[in-house]
Amino acid sequence: MFVFNPLWTIFVLLMGGYVAKIIGVLKQKQSRTLLDFAVTFAIPCLIFDGIYHLNLDLSLTLMILTGLMCSLLGGFFAVIVGYFCHFSRATLVSMFLLSSFGNTLFIGIPIVTGIYDASFIGKVVFYDALATALPFSLIAPFVLSLGSNQPISLFANVKRIVIFPPFIALVLGFCAKVVALPDFIFGPIRALGGATTAVALFAIGLGLGFGAIRSAYKPTIIVILCKTLLTPFLFIGILKVFNVEFNPNHILAILECGMPTMALAGAMIIKAKLDSNLAVSSIAFGILFSFVSIPILCYVLL
Questions:
Q1: pTM higher than 0.90, yes or no?
Q2: 77, 234 Cβ separation under 8 angstroms
Q3: Is the sign of the CA dihedral 68, 74, 76, 78 positive or negative?
Q4: Measured on CA atoms in the order 158, 94, 267, 265, is the torsion positive or negative?
Q5: Element (H, E) at 158
Q6: What are phi and psi of 261, to 5 degrees?
Q7: Where are the alpha helices (H) located in 23-153, listed in sequence order?
Q8: pLDDT (tens digit, 9 = 90+) per residue, 40-64?
Q9: How many CB atoms within 10 Å of residue 235?
């Protein structure tokens, strides 16, 4: 029952945005404005606060890197299956990104804090930065170029990362750890950061669409199963091979690598004019399937 509360919160926020679109209170295009607010203001505040107060340890870092490795392996496996299913190159490229990178922040925070407590927010933020945001920023442009035949600009990619507000907040959070900041500074920072999950999930719900599944149900099923089940069970298998006794850091990393598809990955695939139907379907139905996959993982782990 402990996982019911965060799942219920996620469901209500997503459906709130979706219902607002259906009844005409808000328009689907307005989801972009809400996500821009989250990415530009709320997430950087959440990241800065989380990283500044995070006590780093080698065990957590190793678990995060293992989670990244398993996520990439899950992406490669999805591509292999898609290749034998004779999918197009654009679909294969889309499948790799959608299977490799998850919604480790917006969905991860309510799940992990629901199982443990708010003190784990910093660890979730660190996982998202090290295993999702940074690798995605580095890998995605190169992978997308394979499907769209667009030239790769290393300078442009590096520039995009350096000026990305969450990355700036990450660097500032680490730099600020060398000094003791007075607590009152974090009042407005926490107020903005606290809005991240609600605003982002509502915006994702506002942008959800389910009609594209008709033409992309096969690759969508492969992506969802690889992302939410294969990847975390690969992680569990690796730990079992080395006879590792699970602790909260291990469980956090396993749950995070099993989060549904990253919304930004879908947005970039649509922008690159690859398999848009697959991107939309993987995000929408991946979130819905997480109401099945996350309880399964919690049953196995806890």
A1: no
A2: no
A3: negative
A4: negative
A5: helix 154-162
A6: -55, 140
A7: 30-37, 43-52, 58-84, 89-100, 108-115, 121-128, 134-148
A8: 899 899 989 988 988 878 889 999 9
A9: 26
